[in-house]
Amino acid sequence: MLLVGSSGGHLAQLIRLEPWWRDLDRTWVTFDTPDAVSLLADEPVVWGHHPTTRNVPNLLRNQRLAVRELRRIRPDVVVSTGAAIAFPFFVFAKLMRIPTVYVEVFDRIDSATLTGRLCRPFSTRFCVQWPEQQPLYKGSVVIGPLL
């Protein structure tokens, strides 16, 4: 399993999915920030490039990272809570026929996030945390709040 998410709240929500990943071989992709280093001290981690907001060079770096790591790890599934680092991993996972699961963040219930809109077409399963989010993403599944 490849768990992909920005540090901070996105990573915190991936951590809360522990019942899903606890017994599986896993690798994390996130940013080299103090919270991520602390939370993932005993986990295999690949550090992504940030900042990602409106940063084309880092988008390109993360695309290369996605291709390299998806080929190297060959995960059975890619799971993400966003944000921008998820997009290249979802695009290339879809091209490589690797299933993807996207979990929309819990704090946006009245509008779709940019990453959610971008990753939706590349998601095998799209999960939301609130029933109010379901109309924003056709075919989504409500899993309940993680935080």
Quick description:
The chain has 147 residues and is an alpha/beta fold. The protein is built from six helices and seven strands, in the order βααβαβαβαβαββ. Strands 3-2-1-4-5-6-7 form a seven-stranded parallel beta sheet.
Word description of this protein:
- With 147 residues, this protein is α/β, with parallel strands linked by helices.
- It has one domain: Glycogen Phosphorylase B (Rossmann fold, 3-Layer(aba) Sandwich).
- It contains six helices and seven strands; from the N terminus they run E-H-H-E-H-E-H-E-H-E-H-E-E.
- It has helices at 9-15, 18-21, 34-39, 56-73, 86-95, 114-119, and strands at residues 2-5, 27-31, 45-48, 78-82, 100-103, 125-128, 141-142.
- The chain has a seven-stranded parallel β-sheet.
- Strand 2, helix 3 and strand 3 form a beta-alpha-beta unit.
- It starts with a strand and ends in a 5-residue tail after the last strand.
- The model has no long low-confidence stretch (mean pLDDT 96).
Key terms:
7 strands, Rossmann fold, alpha/beta, 6 helices, globular, 7-stranded parallel β-sheet, single chain, 147 residues
